[in-house]
Design goal:
6 helices; single chain; globular; alpha+beta; 177 residues
């Protein structure tokens, strides 16, 4: 279920990044990167609502739909997206040439295979999904293996462009052994 759907018309949906505090059910920040028709690489972001705000959005949408759909079905309706847009507006950032190049480098390279564990269960968790020819997904804790340096660079770039503190929300790379 996508509690904070982001629907964008673009040339290509490149990646999704969800950031959440460890062990929380729903993410704090949702970011999608798209390659737009004009060639720009653009980040679209929503910041999570409080539980009370989420309930208010669901109630407003349910009232407009006129039914008692489960949240998983309700979150797919136009009424839900409209109520969400009022409570949690979609923010967009056009990435600079160098930033777009870094994102595209990760998109084309993909995520490396690694069997190394991820550390830092006391911080933030990142879920990164690439929508390339062979879609990939990986979850990170606040520290990752050195072979994930490019993914960390993209995550930290998106954290910074979202106006978040990289020291708090960023992904750190472990020292090489």
């Amino acid at each position: 279920m996508q509690l904070y759907p982001i629907a964008v018309r673009s040339r290509q949906h490149l990646l999704d990044l969800d950031i959440r505090q460890s062990f929380r059910q729903f993410p704090d920040v949702f970011i999608q990167i798209h390659s737009m028709e004009d060639g720009a690489v653009t980040a679209f972001r929503r910041t999570a609502l409080t539980r009370a705000q989420c309930i208010a959005v669901a109630e407003a949408a349910a009232k407009r739909v006129g039914s008692t759909l489960p949240l998983s079905a309700l979150s797919q309706t136009l009424e839900y997206r409209e109520a969400l847009d009022k409570a949690c507006p979609l923010q967009l950032t056009v990435l600079s040439g160098a930033e777009a190049e870094t994102v595209m480098k990760l998109f084309h390279a993909g995520l490396p295979e690694t069997d190394r564990g991820f550390d830092g269960l006391d911080g933030h968790m990142f879920s990164l999904r690439l929508f390339c020819d062979h879609p990939q997904q990986m979850e990170f804790w606040c520290c990752a293996a050195p072979e994930l340096a490019l993914a960390a660079e993209v995550i930290n770039l998106l954290v910074q462009r979202a106006g978040l503190d990289v020291r708090y929300y960023g992904l750190k790379i472990e020292a090489a052994e």
